[in-house]
Amino acid sequence: MTEGANMQPVISLRNLHKSFGTLEVLKGISFDAHKGDVIAILGASGSGKSTMLRCINMLEIPTAGDVAVGGETVKLKKHGTGLAIGDQRQIDGIRSRAAMVFQSFNLWSHMTILENLIEAPVHVQRRPKAECVAEAIALLEKVGIADKRNAYPSHLSGGQQQRAAIARALAMHPQVMLFDEPTSALDPERVGEVLAVMRSLANEGRTMLLVTHEIAFARDVANRVIFLHEGVIEEDGPTDLVFGNSKSERFRKFISNSQQADRGQGR
Amino acid sequence: MDTLFIRDSFLQLLSGVPLTLELTAFAFLLGLMLAMLIALMQVSRLRLVRMLAGSYVFVIRGTPLLVQIFLIYYGLGQFRPTLQSLGLWQFFREAYWCGILALSLNGAAYGSEVLRGALQSVSKREIEAAKACGMSGFLLYRRIIMPLALRQALPAYGNELILMVKATSLVSIITMMEITGIAARLISETYRPVEVFIAAGTIYLIINFLLTRVVSMLDWWLTPHLRGVPTTGNPEHAND
């Protein structure tokens, strides 16, 4: 973090606002993420954490504010009361550098796992197919499902599909990975295998933003925690500091509620 | 009933099969291309584009194919000087092309509805994943949306193909000597409509049976992901 502060941030949000109709979900979010950061984004349902993540790769278009990825500010133009995409090619480029892993995997159902992995590298990044295939197989080995490369997503368990989706994101050589509640749709016994893959990515020094409900995992792998409450950043700091001694009453309450819920489930 | 005469008619009617298949193939392919265009217009963000496509479907679906064939073949004859000056008369004076045009326009209207439904059924999540990987515009349609939509549409579109085979019988009325055209000639020569039409019906039945098989084979080949896991037993070691 200290040396990172001098470098250009990988992601930079400035005064980000997002409304859906009259409902204001994000009310001015600003933060920088630096290379190697693993940032856990926590918050109750409806606090805006997924929306914030989706504003980074423009799956949601902010109503106001600036987003920069890799030092490149996203071009947005005025559109009615809000904003619209200004330059689709720029967005496409940014999206392939900020790979997203979704809650429900979102693998392409008509393609095999291997085809899912090489799709964007071959057709978006226009890299040689043979190179992409070799790399995809290595990535599938890394996430432990190389034997599934010719299977279709519907033939895999949820945990396997999510590991494939993580490999698909890695195949694009992203600068940053955006995880949008990657374990929320999984059976409890499948959560561990996905968390293990994510932990190994964090240990490699990959830059990751992670929206999650897995508090214990976040505390373990994240070097920084951002806690959102009703569309504003309520707490933001190094994990140890935030968990050890948070100034925010709401954060302390959120943590103790989650722990009680976990105990209730016998975890 | 004279079975020998049925067999005789059957053999004579077979000479109309190539034209029936030709009309079907041409009209089906032209119709499919037009249907894709109209289906894309139907899901456009622009209201005017949607309305244009909607009006097309409304008019073509709402009027009988036979009326459309008459309008194109006989009706356009009234505009012969205009069509000649445009160089289109060569085209519209041929019953063959008028028939194909009417069948294509008709097929496109029905086909576009099938495709529109299929386009709308494509998982928003899979589209979102493609966008998140940097796909947009034509690439997104070519690689993700269209392949998924066409797989979805295939069984219903197979139906359209069969309807098209049967619809070609209507162009016999504008002098085309396909199966039904030949049947009509045979009847006028022999006054034995029952036998001739039984023979003609049998030929259509065989053609459609074969086409149905082809469509289901294509469907099977294109949708391995909808079938069960290739091997049973421990799912951790399925495949390979």
From TrEMBL, chain A:
Q: Which UniProt keywords apply?
A: ATP-binding, Cell membrane, Membrane, Nucleotide-binding, Transport
Q: Which SMART domains match?
A: AAA
Q: Name one GO cellular component term.
A: plasma membrane
The record's section on InterPro entries has: AAA+_ATPase, ABC_ATPase_HisP-typ, ABC_transporter-like_ATP-bd, ABC_transporter-like_CS, MetN_ABC_transporter-like, P-loop_NTPase
A Pfam family that the UniProt record links to this protein: ABC_tran
Which GO terms fall under molecular function for this chain's record?
ABC-type amino acid transporter activity; ATP binding; ATP hydrolysis activity
Domain ABC transporter span(s) in chain numbering: 11-255
CDD domains listed in its UniProt record: ABC_HisP_GlnQ
Membrane topology annotation:
Peripheral membrane protein
As for subcellular location, the record says: Cell membrane
According to its UniProt record, which protein family does this protein belong to? Answer: Belongs to the ABC transporter superfamily.
PANTHER family tied to this protein: AMINO ACID IMPORT ATP-BINDING PROTEIN (PTHR43166), L-CYSTINE IMPORT ATP-BINDING PROTEIN TCYN (PTHR43166:SF35)
Protein name (database record) = ATP-binding cassette domain-containing protein
UniProtKB/TrEMBL annotation, chain B:
Q: Where in the cell is it found?
A: Cell inner membrane; Cell membrane
Keyword Cytoplasm attributed? no
Q: Which UniProt keywords apply?
A: Cell inner membrane, Cell membrane, Membrane, Transmembrane, Transmembrane helix, Transport
Q: Which Gene3D superfamilies match?
A: MetI-like
From the record, give the transmembrane residue ranges.
20-41, 53-74, 162-184, 196-216
Q: Which PROSITE patterns match?
A: ABC_TM1
Highest taxon, organism lineage: Bacteria
The segment(s) forming the ABC transmembrane type-1 domain are 17-215
Q: How does it sit in the membrane?
A: Multi-pass membrane protein
Q: Which GO terms describe its molecular function?
A: transmembrane transporter activity
Q: What is its main location?
A: membrane
Give coiled-coil spans as residue ranges. none
Q: Which InterPro entries match?
A: AA_ABC_transptr_permease_3TM, ArtM/GltK/GlnP/TcyL/YhdX-like, MetI-like, MetI-like_sf
Q: Name one GO biological process term.
A: amino acid transport
Pfam families per the UniProt record, alphabetical: BPD_transp_1
Cellular component, GO annotation? ATP-binding cassette (ABC) transporter complex
Return the similarity comment: Belongs to the binding-protein-dependent transport system permease family. HisMQ subfamily.
Q: What is this protein called?
A: ABC transporter permease
Q: Taxonomically, what lineage is the organism?
A: Bacteria, Pseudomonadati, Pseudomonadota, Alphaproteobacteria, Hyphomicrobiales
